[in-house]
Amino acid sequence: xxxxxxxxxxxxxxxxxxxxxxxxxxxxxxxxxxxxxxxxxxxxxxxxxxxxxxxxxxxxxxxxxxxxxxxxxxxxxxxxxxxxxxxxxxxxxxxxxxxxxxxxxxxxxxxxxxxxxxxxxxxxxxxxxxxxxxxxxxxxxxxxxxxxxxxxxxxxxxxxxxxxxxxxxxxxxxxxxxxxxxxxxxxxxxxxxxxxxxxxxxxxxxxxxxxxxxxxxxxxxxxxxxxxxxxxxxxxxxxxxxxxxxxxxxxxxxxxxxxxxxxxxxxxxxxxxxxxxxxxxxxx
Length: 284
Prior knowledge:
Blueprint: E1 9-13, H1 20-34, E2 37-43, H2 48-56, H3 64-87, E3 93-98, H4 102-110, E4 115-119, H5 135-142, E5 147-150, E6 162-166, H6 171-179, H7 181-186, E7 189-195, H8 201-204, H9 210-218, E8 223-228, H10 234-245, E9 249-253, H11 259-265, H12 268-275, E10 280-283
Parallel strand pairs: 1-2, 1-4, 2-3, 4-5, 6-7, 6-9, 7-8, 9-10
Antiparallel strand pairs: 5-10
């Protein structure tokens, strides 16, 4: 793969969780395809506010000994990452210890990367705190780089293969599709999917999807416009098409709401982030 439309710096979140293996495989595969520098970023989980309290307050939220242990744990995870990346054949690897909370630390790292690679959110469960969820959209909405969200059961397969890209005429969807261009141009085929486009006719014009398909074709993308008219949700329609077509990648824009409203309404963003059957590239 040659050219400037590539991801040259890819950051993968390293946290020692059971989901880490699948996202590292996906990140390594893309790093190899793009000749990219792969950065493993591990956070101590202690924010700058916590550090300030550590140095100046009697009732610090994290004892100094515990903070040292957090740092040692993150450092050990980064050593394991380097070994795993080498086994996966990545040629250019770097470890970064983030002495901050994961959300803010990864947001800073994203400024100097082309792509962030994280895992799919845990499924909703009784007692699961909100802070354990929402990292992918946090980075996509508050950052400026696309985020690749990898399911836990992802296994090495050709990326991008067949791509299902959701298109609803919004700026968010356009930004996601534009951010995915390096993958779309390399894909076997791209299904540009419009779900119930008649409901947003003012955004789509007389031939829904035609203008964007022409734009993508000029970038060398093998694109097919798919009009889905269904009584199902947009998220379910996109995921069903991805499964039926054997897609290896999905692309979608994300929409920012308050956390409570997003969970309460169960929007397209939440559906895809929780249940997309294949890696999902998102942007805001």
